[in-house]
Amino acid sequence: xxxxxxxxxxxxxxxxxxxxxxxxxxxxxxxxxxxxxxxxxxxxxxxxxxxxxxxxxxxxxxxxxxxxxxxxxxxxxxxxxxxxxxxxxxxxxxxxxxxxxxxxxxxxxxxxxxxxxxxxxxxxxxxxxxxxxxxxxxxxxxxxxxxxxxxxxxxxxxxxxxxxxxxxxxxxxxxxxxxxxxxxxxxxxxxxxxxxxxxxxxxxxxxxxxxxxxxxxxxxxxxxxxxxxxxxxxxxxxxxxxxxxxxxxxxxxxxxxxxxxxxxxxxxxxxxxxxxxxxxxxxxxxxxx
Length: 289
Prior knowledge:
This protein has six helices and 18 strands.
């Protein structure tokens, strides 16, 4: 019989019971990947992260991330939430302004912006562009009219988590959108790789958005940090937001499902940063025999 401590934190929010919940096991040594997947399915949150000793000298820790259905090579809210827990645990110096986490996709630089509570930033991995999709088909599977979409072709982009971006005209259209497994199969056609579908509209503050990932076991995600860097790249390309270094904006996500999340974005010379606040809510122990 062995016990493992874990914490549940709400990420991309300053309010408990909002944002995107995450379970973090700060010392997962002794757990194999099969057991990690079972634990993630048991807890049934968007993601669960497991902290292990780093294999790289330049990284503070290694992080493995699982949804209820699969392991992810990179995910945003687990990265931000795990960084927060590592600060809480003293696994990195409390006055750290920067460190690096080792994930399956590679090293992820973390930056801490000091304040009454830390604003934790991750630097988005390299963004890869994929295919464009038919707007009418996207509208149909999302339960929208073609006229609800902005005159921009939906496109697949990935920073480790392939995501199809669909721009619509207003918040009402975002809130009407819905995607289930059957619709996802129609949308994918002959495409074999899994991807998420991110529906958004530009706002004065940045974007208002929702994300669906039925193939990942996530009906709707309250906050998707891994898709928010590519969202920024997509918005910059289509002149929906400035691409100048120093530009900051906010993507509001999860509001429709009652889990309002605020994902901060900063465009920098070296890349796109995604950041957020974290609210700790649970400390617990899981006993496995």
